[in-house]
Design a protein that fits this description.
The protein is an alpha/beta fold. The protein is 43% helix and 16% strand. The strands form 3 sheets. It has a 6-stranded parallel sheet, sandwiched between helices. A 4-stranded parallel sheet has the order 7-6-8-9, sandwiched between helices. The protein has a two-stranded antiparallel sheet with strand order 10-12. Strand 1, helix 3 (65-81) and strand 2 form a beta-alpha-beta unit.
Length: 334
């Protein structure tokens, strides 16, 4: 049993909740809830001692498919528990979002929220703000992107194993290349631990294939538009590139657009991470080779469940790993 599944089973027994089926992709709607259902939800909150608790969840953005799904999962967990969950995110470019996140942290402290779940834009830049949360006696759950520094500020970390994801996707890509050719890496936001780990994993995998050359490795800020611009420039200077490894699907879709514009659709292998709807369709259309399902819904869901456990005084593990799966044309319809 994976740590994630073990975590959910413990949570279910503690909070007497129904398990969340693997087929669930979106959060339950609050609309149309009957008075009886509302009373039942309130009773659940009273039973688990969380009726007066409030959890703030701060993510990187609420515009990309990945973090929209994270938000849905977090809100679904809050609804099941009867806990107030506020999801916040910077409104500017992700690469400039650290200051906004720090301001949101200060606001959470001022409002005396009961727990903070945070996915930092800048792993190191957010450390001073998170230290203030800890000093205020508010427990922290680290979501998706690890908080930097040597001091463990969060009670637990909920995420995929980003290094392993980067390595496994890159290994598969190298095999598809036949162990030979030129490859480009499109990195995420500078300073984001997710990008650092995925790039490191990819580079370690590529080292096992001496005939594959990394001709460029450049950041595109986890942005589709930025990735398109970066890829257009890199394709001009590297017209014979055979594959492009991207640290997420939004950037992969920008790369696909650049490849289309260059008239090279289908001739360059593209991989991403997240398995969002656009990436799955691109795989079906033959414009993208592979992605990795990182289950953002469950990352959000599990992080709020972890915060609830902490508020209940229950022990938590240092790391809850969300399962992942490589998606190619062979299994994209599953």
């Amino acid at each position: 049993m994976s740590k994630r599944l073990g975590f959910i089973s413990v949570i279910v027994s503690v909070f007497l909740l129904a398990g969340c089926g693997a087929e669930k992709e979106t959060a339950p709607s609050n609309e149309g809830k009957t008075e009886t259902e509302a009373q039942t939800s309130a009773q659940t909150a009273a039973d688990n001692g969380l009726s007066d608790k409030e959890i703030t969840v701060i993510v990187k953005n609420l515009t990309g498919p990945f973090f929209i799904s994270v938000s849905e999962g977090a809100k679904a967990a809050g609804e099941e528990l009867g806990v107030k969950v506020n999801v916040l995110a910077p409104v500017g470019q992700e690469g400039a979002g650290n200051e906004e996140q720090a301001q949101m942290v200060e606001q959470a402290i001022a409002q005396q929220v009961d727990a903070l779940v945070i996915c930092p834009v800048d792993s190191k830049g957010i450390v001073p703000a998170v230290k203030k949360v800890v000093d205020a006696g508010i427990p922290v759950v680290n979501l998706n992107t690890k908080i930097g520094g040597t001091e463990q500020l969060a009670k637990t970390f909920v995420a995929i194993e980003n290094y392993e994801v980067g390595k496994s996707v890159a290994q598969n890509l190298c095999e598809k290349m036949g162990g030979d050719g030129k490859l480009i890496i499109i990195e995420g936001t500078a300073g984001a631990q997710t990008s650092i780990d995925r790039v490191q994993g990819a580079n370690d995998a590529i080292k096992e294939y001496p005939d594959i050359e990394v001709v460029a490795s450049q950041s595109a800020n986890y942005s589709r538009a930025d990735a398109m611009n970066v890829a257009q420039n890199l394709l001009q200077s590297n017209p014979d590139v055979e594959a492009i490894f991207c640290c997420n699907d939004e950037m992969a879709m920008g790369v696909v657009e650049a490849i289309d514009a260059a008239g090279k659709t289908g001739s360059i292998l593209v991989t991403g991470v997240d398995a969002n709807a656009d990436a799955r369709q691109a795989i079906k259309d033959g414009k993208m080779y592979a992605t990795c399902d990182s289950q953002p819904y469950y990352q959000g869901y599990d992080s709020v469940m972890a915060a609830a456990k902490i508020l209940r005084g229950e022990p938590v593990e240092n790391f809850y790993r969300t399962e992942t799966k490589l998606i190619t044309i062979e299994n994209v319809d599953e």
